[in-house]
Amino acid sequence: MKSIYLRNFIATAAMIGLGLLLVAVSIFLIGRSYIIEDYRANMISSAQEVAHTASAVAEKDSLNSWLLRMILSSISKATGNHIMITDSDGMVVSCCDELPICSHMGRVLPEDIVIAVNTTGGYQGRLLVSGFFGEERILVAEPIPGESEDTIGFVVVSIQQRNIFSSWKTLLFAMLLISGLVFAAILIFAFVYSKRMARPLDEIAEASRSFARGDFSPRVRQNTDTSYEMGALIDSFNKMADSLENAEKRRTEFISNVSHELRTPMTTISGFADGILDGTIPKEEEEKYLRSIRDETRRLSRLVRNMLDASKMKAMASDPKRRTDFDLTELCLQTLLSFESRATAKHLDVDPQFPDNRVMVHADQDGITQVIYNLLDNAVKFAREGSCITIRLYIEDKKAYVSVRDEGETIPPDDLPYIFDRFHKSDRSRSLDKDGVGLGLYLVKTIINSHDEDIAVKSEGGMTEFVFTLPLAEA
Q1: How many Å from the N-terminal Cα to the C-terminal Cα in the chain?
Q2: CA 47/CA 41 separation, integer angstroms
Q3: Sign (positive or negative) of CA dihedral 107, 108, 113, 118
Q4: Segments making up each domain of the chain, as ranges
Q5: What percent of the chain has pLDDT over 90?
Q6: Residues 325, 362: contact at Cβ < 8 Å?
Q7: Do the beta carbons of residue 240 and residue 220 sit within 8 Å?
């Protein structure tokens, strides 16, 4: 399962990394744009303030006065912006740089800047102004109004882009560092979480390997922190395991039944056939032994058919989807009618004791029909000729009870604990039921137990009674 851990971890890390990358790029672009706009707004504000100051100074002096130059220098140092003042034609007449250093005096702004300020009342841009600056700068220009509201010059404010982004780079580095730490913490959490999420898959894989070895007992545990989807998968897997285990039990049981019952007749058939072939059995006795072989063969045929029927009925009765509400009284009467001819042949009296009202139960109708049929079949088979068979139906403790009683030879006390075991035949069965294979009562108990109900037997004083329960249908 390491590959599952690795795949989950890589997929989670990739998604988280991609998400953080998108967030980082978005923050970078949005932050960069915000900083530029913020600086541009401050530059425009500075330019407008300088324009008003220059307009006031120009009324008493000129635009290249020392007073205005000192004002430009002070504002430049306070804001970090480079400030120049030009005349109406765009020629620089004052600058924030000191005279020995300033190289801008007397130079003329590009014509497009002059035209933009004259026509739109201002200029904003990011460009490389040749002859003035050696690198690209953010630049704004504002007109200086005269006494008659005509433009007497321009204020040009600019700043290097690297100065703008120096603080942004520091912030960006801090953000990247924090993002890296967050990413590392999320990766650790994702690894632990994916490993926890994959733990049930480990158990499922281990259980599957046990299934492949023929061991269907392992089940996957479901913890309180298991997700809904994983819980549904675990439930489905455990149900599948239950189904496989039951199927394996039925298969093992069937093989055990077959091997148990086929051993004796096959040995008999093989011995008689070998005796006929090698001459051990005289010619005059061959017909007798061939009849024995025929009888054993027919018995094998009945055995296989009954075993298949038993397995089929057991599987059907265990299916809750087959259970419906039906009238148990009517079912008992219908099943009882099928024994009329046999009961008449043995001169048996039948005493049905049913309540006046219907008894509605919730069960597998086919399975309960088989139960009642098998019990009545045994009652007719083992009842003493001319005796009475009683079938009684009653309700007690919110359950339906069915009793089948016959008068005849009782079951030995030593046999009673094993009467419902598969292939078990009591002494009276061996004497009166030579064709049976001992699956009838086993099937009866299996069907009743599959409904989570009970069946009991009592045999004494010439009376044998079977009683089983069924759940009542909900009103």
Answers
A1: 52
A2: 10
A3: positive
A4: 2-166, 216-317, 320-471
A5: 16
A6: yes
A7: no
**What is the per-residue pLDDT for 471?**
93
CATH number attached to the domain at 320-471: 3.30.565.10
pLDDT per position as a tens digit, 328-365: 999 999 999 888 889 999 999 999 999 988 999 999 88
Cite the beta strand spans of 337-418 per DSSP E. 349-353, 360-363, 388-396, 399-407
Q: In CATH terms, are 2-166 and 216-317 the same topology?
A: no
Q: Please give the Cα distance from 439 to 423 (Å, whole number).
A: 5
* pLDDT reported for residue 270: 84
Other C-beta atoms closer than 10 Å to the C-beta of 242 total 12
Q: Say which CATH topology domain 216-317 has.
A: Helix Hairpins (1.10.287)
Closest CA to 372 of 344, 351, 401, 410: 401
pTM of the model: 0.44
**CATH architecture assigned to 2-166:** 2-Layer Sandwich (3.30)
Q: What are phi and psi of 140, to 5 degrees?
A: -130, 150
Q: How many residues does the chain have?
A: 475
